[in-house]
Specification:
Rieske Iron-sulfur Protein; Naphthalene 1,2-dioxygenase Alpha Subunit, Chain A, domain 1; 2 domains; eight-stranded antiparallel β-sheet; six-stranded antiparallel β-sheet; 21% helix; binds FE2/S2 (inorganic) cluster; binds fe (ii) ion
Amino acid sequence: MRNPNDAQNLALVTTPSVDLDAEADLTRCGALKDFWYVACLSTDLTPGKPLARTLFGTNVVLFRDEHGRPVALRDRCLHRNARLSAGAVFHGRIGCPYHGWVYDASGAVVEVPSLGPKQCGEALDARGHASAGLQVRPCDLGKLQRFDTLEQDGLVFIFMGGDAMRARRPAFRVPYWDDPKWTVYFMVTRFPNGVTNLVENFMDVPHTVFVHEGWFRRVASKRVPATVKRSEGSVLVTYKQGEDTVTGLGRIFNPGGEVMVHTDHYFVPNITRVDYMWGERSGFAINSQVTPIGPTDSLVYTAISYRLPYDLPRSLVARALKPLVKWYTTQVILQDVEIMKVQREGLLNGPGGGVFTGTEADLLHSDIESYRRWLREGGHGPGPGDEERDIVFWI
Ligand code: FES
Ligand SMILES: [Fe+2]
């Protein structure tokens, strides 16, 4: 006898919730590329040195031009396709490690060592050059693809979607970056999973009692009511738990036992911001920007911003506590790296991966997926509509 749920089951089996392959492919990711992505920390880009990065499966070389501005070019020499990032940077130009062709910050070939001092073909005539598909001068050799860049709040951003005027949003501002009352530092972590799964993990409370047991929260059989608001490309989750608390380092932030206000916020397409506030004077914000390398490989730039409730000079307390806060956040992140690896192993095992199911606790995840699916399919029209709903789950 036919199961009335067959049609539904079939739909679940054949429609992946996420398509990690397409999401991380520059030619198939639709409007997901039309945003600024973090390419590196400002401090990673030292003058005179090239830096290799991969975004959406595309190799990019970054360096600083003669004015110190970040430059991003396709990391593939026009001559015989060697990776330029293995070469050298001098006077704001980059030289290929294979035959020494030199490119300027616009991606144009400005010097070909084998052409000698005249920088012009000498023996072969114009017809000879043309019939063999060769060029007479460096300026005829074409240009490397160049990507727009922007430097802000200690981060270098890159725009992979063509002209940056097309960017759907400005580059994200790091929380409290310019606020002297707050301390901010970055962590860069390579995660073995794709953007959708990572932003879901960073917004996910139910996993904390399993993956971070004792580090962050304990299984306490607590009922957690929350509001999920989907609007204008963001998903805001406000937890309405009078006596919610975090263990571990949380005690240092909240010696007075203030009520903790916890919000999780997702912004299209790749950003999360998690805030814990204890009264007016103490808080902890974790902002993660995920840069896709490939389908199940990402670099996550995490900005940790914190403010402590003590009256001692800020710099003194913040400096004293920074190693501890850094050690703690590193341990928590490494636990997430491990579980993302475990998820990837399940996801990639044979066909059918990427088909997810869920319950009320996963409403925010389906909202994230609906935005990302809409963008991957081109981001046409108004996109998922605004909605606000209450949910309850247990931890
Ligand atoms: S491959 Fe780059 S100069 Fe030859
Ligand atoms: Fe986690």
